[in-house]
Amino acid sequence: MAECCPVNVSVVSRHLALLRDAGILAAERRGKEVYYSVRYPQLVATLRAIANAIEACCPGEDPAKQGDLP
C-alpha cells in the first residue's frame, strides 16, 4: 500500500493498526507479513462508489505521476 502513495511505511502501518483496533479491518499474520482485509463488504462497495464518482467528475493525472499534493 505504501508503494502506491507518497507516504512513509510507518505512517501506513499506524493507520492500518488504528483501523484494525476500530474493528474495520481484520488482520492475519503470515510469517513476517500482516495481511489486512475489510470486515464490512458494504464499506468496500461504498468506498469504491465514492472513488468512481470522483474519477468520473474530476479526472486528473495518473496518481503514480502526481507526486506531492498541494
Give a quick summary of the entry.
The protein has three helices and two strands, in the order αββαα.
Set out the fold topology.
Blueprint lengths: L8 H13 L3 E6 L2 E6 L2 H17 L5 H4 L4
Antiparallel strand pairs: 1-2
Structure description:
This protein is an alpha+beta fold and 70 residues long. It has one domain. The protein has 3 helices and 2 strands. It has helices at residues 9-21, 41-57, 63-66; strands at 25-30, 33-38. A two-stranded antiparallel sheet has the order 1-2.
Q: Largest sheet at a glance?
A: 2 strands, antiparallel
Helix content, binned percent: 40-55%
Number of domains: 1
User: H/E order of the elements?
Assistant: HEEHH
Shape: globular
Uncertain spans: none
Task: Give a quick set of tags describing it.
two-stranded antiparallel sheet, 17% strand, 3 helices, 70 residues, alpha+beta, single chain
